[in-house]
Design goal:
The chain is mainly beta. It has no helices and ten strands. The strands form three sheets. The chain has a four-stranded antiparallel β-sheet with strand order 3-10-5-8, with no helix packed on it. Strand 1 and strand 2 form a beta hairpin. The protein is globular and about 45 Å long.
């Protein structure tokens, strides 16, 4: 559950609780994550590798090197999801791991 708080400058900011994290090995073939919890609407995808990968989100996704969004090296992104969705990833360079965290 998220809530609103004030930062050090008095500005409103959104606070999120972190849910389950799954670390996946990114390979040369598309691989899928576990299903996202039914009450989750946002996920955090983190690439701690020095190479990029491609990803796809959906009920039965397949990541593609040519049509799926790219996650650059050493980047983090937040994405809207539906409960039950999965994340598929495929190596674009020499990326090895991806961390997918559910925001609740």
């Amino acid at each position: 559950m998220s809530r609103v708080a004030r930062d050090d400058l008095g500005q409103l900011t959104q606070i999120y609780a972190l849910g389950t994290t799954q670390v996946m090995t990114v390979t040369a073939s598309s691989v899928q994550s576990n299903a996202i919890a039914s009450d989750c609407t946002i996920i955090r995808i983190a690439n701690s590798s020095t190479a990029h990968f491609h990803f796809q989100i959906g009920s039965n996704p397949t990541a593609s090197l040519t049509t799926s969004p790219m996650m650059p090296a050493n980047q983090v992104g937040y994405f809207k999801v539906n409960g039950g969705d999965k994340v598929a990833v495929i190596r674009g360079g020499t990326a090895t791991d991806v961390s997918i965290t559910q925001i609740i």
